[in-house]
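Hello,

Following up on my earlier ticket. Below are the two sequence lines again, exactly as submitted.
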Amino acid sequence: MNPTEVLKQDLPTAKTKEGKVKKMMLILSKATIDNVYACMILANGARMEGIESEIFFTFFGLEAIQKKKLEHLSIATVGNPAMHIPTMLGGLPGMESFATSMMKKEMEKLDIPPVGEFLEILSASGARLWACKLAMDMFHIKEEDLIDELDGVLTVGDFYERAAGENTHLLFI
Amino acid sequence: MEKQIAGKNITVNEEGYLTNLNEWDKDVATEIAQEEGITLEEAHWPVLEYLQNQHKNEVALTIRKVGKSGVIDIKGFYALFPGGPLKKASRIAGIPKPVSCI
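Thanks for your patience. The regenerated structure is below:
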C-alpha cells in the first residue's frame, strides 16, 4: 500500500476542506543538521501542499541562517544513540565530519539540496523566514551576518501574532 | 475509472490523475486546469511539456529539479500553479501524482 492510500483510509476528514491545515509555524532551536533538515523539509512540504509556512530561527537554530556557518553544520556523533557506535568513538577527531559527509552524500542522491540552496528554495516558494531577536542579542549576531532571504527579526510576541488564524499549527524543533 | 473530460472518455485514478498519458491532449489539460482553478496560458505549456518529458524518462520529480530545469524558476512555478504546484501541474500534465517530499 502506498502512503497516499494509507492516508485516505485513516483520514475520513481528508476530503473535506474544513479540517485542513492552513498554516505551519515552525520553530527551529537546534543546529544539528538532522534537526535543521527536518524543519526545512516540513516547511517546504507544507508549501508544496499549498499550506502557508514560516520558520522562526532561535537559539542554536540561528546557525542555520548565518552566512558563514550554514554550510558547516554537522550531525552529533556523541550522545546520539542512532549512531550505533560507542560514545567514546563518536568523540574521536574527524568522526563528526565523517558522519556528516556520509549523510550529505545520501541526501544529494535523493535530490535534497544543501542548506543554503534549501533556504533559497523556501524563500522562492513563499515560506517566510524569521530570526529571533532575543537569541540574536544573546549570541551577538547582527542582521548582516544572516542570509539575504531572511524576512526579518521578530520577538516571540510578533511570531505568535503571525500565527493567528484557524488551523494554524506550531511546531518546536 | 472513466471520466468525461473535454468530451472524451478518459481513464483516471481516484484522485483524478490520468493513468494513460496517451489519452492526454491540450483540451483535456485545459479542462483539468479549470477544475484546479487555473486558466492555462502560454507560459504553462512549456512547464507541462517539461514534466511530461521527465516522466517519460522516469525521473522522479522534485521542486528543486523544476527550479533547475531552465524552463521556469521556483517562484514562477508557484505563481503559475498556486496551492501545490507539483501536484497540480502533474495532474494537468496527465502524469502520475509525484511522491516526493521535496
